[in-house]
Amino acid sequence: MEGDRGHVGTDRIPRQAVVDGPGTRPDLGSGSGTIHISFRPKQLPDFHRTASGNAQQSTTATANRSACADFAEFLSFSLPNGRTTDDRFAKGPFTSDLVRFYNGWADDDLYTTLSYKAVGTALPVFRLANASAFVGCTLQQNYDETGISPEGTVAFDKGSDIDLALAGDGRQWRSVDAVSSMTVLIEVPPGQSSPATVLACDCYDPQLLTATGVGAG
Hints:
This protein is mainly beta.
């Protein structure tokens, strides 16, 4: 969901994420509220290949895909109650750091929840040379925010994706419901013998699909 998320009626600085690393957006905005998240991308092992050189699909694809639902469950919480650790996933920029980033949005004047679910057609699961599985997921994010005090309003950068979807023109909102989509790539160890690693995800800047809101007067 692109654009500043600012809390009107408080002195809080709007937050943005700028993820530094190859294959990511170089900039999601500018300003004193920008948060930089740096990471060194994990280099994938090669795919396990058949005698003809084709990438081999996993023989345990159904079980491997459960990592998508597990990741969706891990990211679903009310702020600031997200757990930064989970035995199912290795710590990193798309797990512990991501939850910490969202927990930082918490505001005493607002009640905010994030919920995720795996959606879309199941993607092929490939076997890697190290015997792990390479799993692709499409997740739907539901972002719901409601003011719980007279000062509990939220605003977004004028002209940002969500502002345009709300036809808000930079206005203040008492509640906002937004739905976004994201793609996740996960390395699942054989037999799920150790935590899975989230290799890549547009979690900090998901693609906005729809948004509705109740204006603040």
